[in-house]
Each structure stands twice: as structure tokens, then as C-alpha cells.
Design brief:
The chain is mainly alpha-helical and 466 residues long. It contains 18 helices and no strands. Helix 6 packs parallel to helix 9 and helix 7 crosses helix 9. The longest helix has 37 residues. The chain is globular and about 60 Å long. It starts with 6 loop residues before the first helix and ends in a 20-residue tail after the last helix.
């Protein structure tokens, strides 16, 4: 077990003024999300410079595969973050080390298995994600290089979350910026200069994720955090279930996002490849308002988890309430800017007039819930921080699964293409209402307002970090 030097981290979690503590954690995380946002946009942007809508559509079609890798990384990383932050709040550093070691080796094993399966089953995967005669070749070119990135994506995503549980938000940001920044630099070289098209975008993605994962490996192995990846700390018993219980709902959200993208693409394909390409561009633009709010939600989970483990109800509630205010302000500003600039941004992706016309219309539809969607991301991370596996599962399957997917078919039947486009805002509103109904009863039961630091709330002992 490595020596523990956590005085700064303890101050951040326990005594730093709440608005400042959130900003200290959130600013690096949101900055990292900006880089991820640029990374997500970069492939579509540079491929769009070829003015080939079929290659742009290929990037959109391949997105579910990459989302699945990220889902697995979130399963391990968010589950591990929740358990580690609660364990540190309970002053159990040895168990926190066991969890981080488990997450490290599991990431590599699962990633290698995924890479092998996706390469072998490529024909079936292409058929499942809805390629057409025009898009099958570029989509296959893209996936042939994205599939081997699986172990690096999973490990990088997992430990981008886990190091934040140890109070290392800046290091988490740098790790994300390192890989995604390299990817952004390599994109124009491979896609345009070397004229490799979507295959070049995929190669840049692979290289970027390799570098990012190696950085996190070195960070933890080099004693730069209070965590461990030593085999001597590795164990499965008593670790697997707590991580999976919280990780599965988090991952399921990504899996359902991947599934819903496949469903959406299949429905959109009936309206032609132009509509498919336009939605691919619109989704990237709408990420400006969404992804940064996800970053805010993710950044507060270690603060919430630590204070939940320490039974500090007053600080927990203060973090939650302040984060909601930040989310509303951030969401409103980002939505306003994205709405005004939607035409310029879409035009920057591709000059095809048909794609531009539909893309601008799609962007503005997707931005309708931009000012308030951050509330849901705050509540998702609140449930995960409290170890509320069942409630987190319900919310995860609701937004991208039980609500969004049926809405695609129902609104398509009623309103055609316009209905398909508005399915996401409708699902978002319903998911926000569900999240409110889930968080506050759980909070009232396990962390009542009258609790003081160090005193147990009603039935709190039934929610251990394990």
C-alpha cells in the first residue's frame, strides 16, 4: 500500500467553501470536456472538409461503437469513483486502493476482449448499425482502426474519472487534453494532407487514446495520487459488486445512447443519407450546450460521495444546491450562444447546401432543453455518489431507452422527420422530471437535513461504501 498524503484533498472535500470547492473541481473537468467537445467535433469537421456527405454519415454511423467503449469505461470508472470517494470519506484508504487496482486491470482485460470481438464480427456490426451501399465502405474503414482502440479508450475513460475521486481534477483534465489534443492535431494531417479520409480520422483517434491511457497509467503508478494499481492491492471479492452496482447504470446510459443512435440512424436512413449527415452534424453542434454540463455533473460526484460517506448532510446539500444554480446559468448561456451561432457552426462542418439547411433546423430543435438539461446530469451524479444503484438504473434506462427510443417511433409516425428530430427534447424533459422524483426521497431517507458531520442519518448504515 502506498503512503497517503491527502491533506490538500481533505481540505477540498471537507472545509473549502462550497462554491470554491465546486469550481476547483469543475473548472478542470469542464475544460477537459471542452477538449472532448472539440475532439468529438474534429472528426466530423475535418471529414466534412472533403465535402463528401457519405463520409460524414460514416462517422455518425460508427459513433455507437465508440460510445460502447466509452460506456464500458464509465461502468468501471464511475462505479469506481463512487466507491472510492465514499471509502475515502469513511477513512478507508486501503479499500480505495483495492478498488482502483481492480478497475485498472479490469479495464485492460475487457478492452482487449472487445477489440478482438469487433474485428472478427465486423460484417455483422456494419449490418446492425444501418449502413447503406454508399456508406458501408467508409464506415468499415473507420471501424477497422477504432476497434483496436478499445482497451485504451476504456482505461483512459475509467481513470479520467477515478483520479478525480482522489482530488486530482487538474491531472484528469490534462490526461484528457493530452490524448484529445493530439487527436485534433493529427486529424487534418491524416484526413486532408495524406488524403486518408475517415480512415485517417480513426487512426488519429487510436493514437490519441493510446497516449491518454499511458499518461493515466504513469500518473497512478508513479505515486502521483493516493491510489494504487499494484497487483498486491488487487482483489475481486468485496470489490466487484459495489463497482458494478453503480457502474452498470452509468454504463447503461452510454449503451442505450449507442442503441438509440443506431435506432435513430436507421429511422433517418429512410429519409436519405442527407438527413443522416445533417443529424450527425447537428448532434455535434448541440454537444456544445450538453457536454460541458455533463462535465459539471461529473465534477461534483467526488465531493458528494466523500461527504455522503462522512455523513455530512449540510455540506452535501450545499454542494448539490450550488451545483444546480451553476448548471442553470451555464446551460442558459451555452444554449443562447449555440442557437445564435448555429448557422455559422453547421456551415463550418460542411458546405453542402442540403445538409446545411436541415442541419440548422435540427440543431435548434435539439437545443430546446439546453438551459435545463444540466439539472438531470447533476441528479444522475448525485444518485451515483450516494450509491443509489436502483434509482440510478431507473434514470439511466429512462432518458435514452424507455423514453427516447419509443418517442422516435411515435413522433415519426405522427409528424414524420420533424417528429424524429424533436424526440430527444421530449425525452429530456421527461427524464428531468423523473430525476427530481428519484433524488429527493432518497436524500431525505438516507441523509436528513438535521444530520451533523459524523452523526448517522436514518438507515444510513444500510448504504455502505463496501
Amino acid at each position: 500500500m502506498k503512503p497517503q498524503d491527502t491533506s490538500h484533498e481533505n481540505y477540498l472535500f471537507e472545509r473549502m467553501p462550497v462554491p470554491r470547492a465546486i469550481l476547483v473541481n469543475a473548472l478542470p473537468t469542464v475544460a477537459g470536456m471542452v477538449v472532448i467537445l472539440v475532439y468529438n467535433i474534429a472528426d466530423t469537421f475535418f471529414v466534412g472538409q472533403t465535402n463528401d456527405p457519405f463520409q460524414v454519415a460514416a462517422v455518425s454511423l460508427a459513433t455507437p461503437v465508440f460510445l460502447l467503449f466509452m460506456a464500458t469505461g464509465n461502468l468501471i470508472g464511475i462505479g469506481g469513483t463512487s466507491v472510492i470517494s465514499r471509502a475515502l470519506g469513511e477513512k478507508r484508504p486501503g479499500f480505495a486502493n483495492a478498488v482502483s487496482s481492480f478497475c485498472f486491470y479490469t479495464s485492460w482485460i475487457v478492452g482487449i476482449i472487445f477489440a478482438g470481438v469487433f474485428l472478427v464480427e465486423m460484417p455483422r456490426i456494419l449490418n446492425a448499425i444501418g449502413v447503406s451501399e454508399n456508406t458501408i465502405a467508409p464506415t468499415r474503414d473507420y471501424l477497422m482502426y477504432v476497434a483496436p482502440s478499445a482497451p485504451f479508450v476504456i482505461m483512459g475513460v475509467a481513470f479520467g474519472n477515478i483520479v478525480r475521486a482522489a482530488g486530482k481534477a487538474k491531472e484528469a483534465m490534462f490526461g484528457m487534453m493530452l490524448g484529445t489534443g493530439l487527436n485534433i492535431i493529427l486529424d487534418p494531417l491524416f484526413i486532408l494532407t495524406l488524403e486518408m479520409g475517415v480512415a485517417g480520422a480513426a487512426i488519429a483517434t487510436l493514437i490519441g487514446n493510446i497516449v491518454s491511457s499511458l499518461y493515466f497509467w504513469r500518473l497512478v503508478a508513479g505515486n502521483k495520487t493516493s491510489l494504487s494499481i499494484s497487483m498486491s492491492d488487487f482483489r475481486i471479492r468485496g470489490v466487484l459488486w459495489p463497482v458494478v452496482a453503480i457502474g452498470v447504470p452509468a454504463a447503461l446510459n452510454n449503451v442505450l445512447m449507442s442503441t438509440s443512435v443506431i435506432v435513430l440512424n436507421n429511422v433517418l436512413s429512410s429519409y436519405g443519407d442527407i438527413a443522416l449527415a445533417a443529424m450527425g452534424v447537428a448532434t455535434k453542434v448541440s454537444m456544445i450546450a450538453v457536454l460541458l454540463q455533463i462535465g459539471l455533473g461529473v465534477s461534483i460526484q467526488p465531493l458528494l460521495g466523500y461527504n455522503y460517506g462522512a455523513k455530512n448532510s449540510a455540506r452535501f446539500r450545499s454542494v448539490l444546491q450550488t451545483a444546480i444554480v451553476y448548471a442553470l446559468v451555464m446551460g442558459s448561456v451555452l444554449t443562447f450562444v449555440s442557437w445564435l451561432g448555429s448557422g455559422y457552426i453547421v456551415n463550418a462542418f460542411i458546405e453542402d447546401q442540403a445538409v446545411y439547411d436541415q442541419g440548422v433546423r435540427f440543431v435548434r430543435a435539439l437545443l430546446l432543453t439546453g438551459p435545463v438539461i444540466g439539472i438531470m446530469f447533476i441528479y444522475i451524479n448525485t444518485l451515483q455518489a450516494m450509491g443509489a444503484a436502483k434509482e440510478s438504473l431507473v434514470l439511466s434506462v429512462s432518458r435514452q431507452g424507455f423514453i427516447f427510443i419509443p418517442m422516435i417511433f411515435v413522433l415519426n409516425h405522427l409528424f414524420g422527420l420533424s417528429g424524429v428530430v424533436y424526440a430527444q427534447p421530449v425525452a429530456d424533459v421527461m427524464a428531468i422530471l423523473i430525476s427530481i422524483a428519484l433524488v429527493y426521497p432518497h436524500l431525505a431517507k438516507y441523509l436528513p437535513k438535521h444530520d451533523e458531520p459524523g452523526k448517522s442519518g436514518e438507515d444510513l448504515g444500510s448504504q455502505p461504501a463496501q
